[in-house]
Design brief:
This protein is α+β, with helices and mostly antiparallel strands. It is built from four helices and nine strands. The strands form two sheets. Strands 3-4-5-9-8-7-6 form a seven-stranded antiparallel beta sheet. A two-stranded antiparallel sheet has the order 1-2.
Length: 190
Amino acid sequence: MKKLLTSALMLAVLALAGCGASHDDPQPPAAAPPGATADAETGTEAEAAEPVGGYEDEAYACGLLTRADMETLFGGPVGEPQPNGIGSSRFCQWKDGSGESWVYLELAKPSNGAAKEYATVRKVRPEARDVSGIGDKAYSYYHRGQTEVKVLDGDLYVTVAVQYLKGRTLTPQADVARVTTLARQVVGRM
């Protein structure tokens, strides 16, 4: 049953990530990350240290992560960031070079309030562990197929997660530590 529930959750995430896109339609070239500028000497893009725009900008979430962050996390090349905005939420997804793992970042301003959303979700995850030093409150949650850190930061409910299509090679402690580091970077840049 647990395996079925995990599979259903993964399919829901993949379906949401693909909303509005058809595999039959050619994909337009990916846009440069927010804040990217061309480097005149090398012809490559250098990323801005801080995100451009604000929360209302659909690409804001992707500006909180850099290519260097993702390459460090995955230990190699990564795909292009995929920003999205639905209602009061901003999303960004980065895939590793193989497409077998990805980072999912969500910034949300829930209609019932970020603090209430945080408390509601935290209550149903008794095995989650509190994390200090990130936002107002934070916890990490490790389970098969995904490691996540949820953060309450003022009126924002932040999710930083790494999802896996194939088995991971890190211990649970090491995986939680690297996702926690990424969450600290994201919240520190907001």
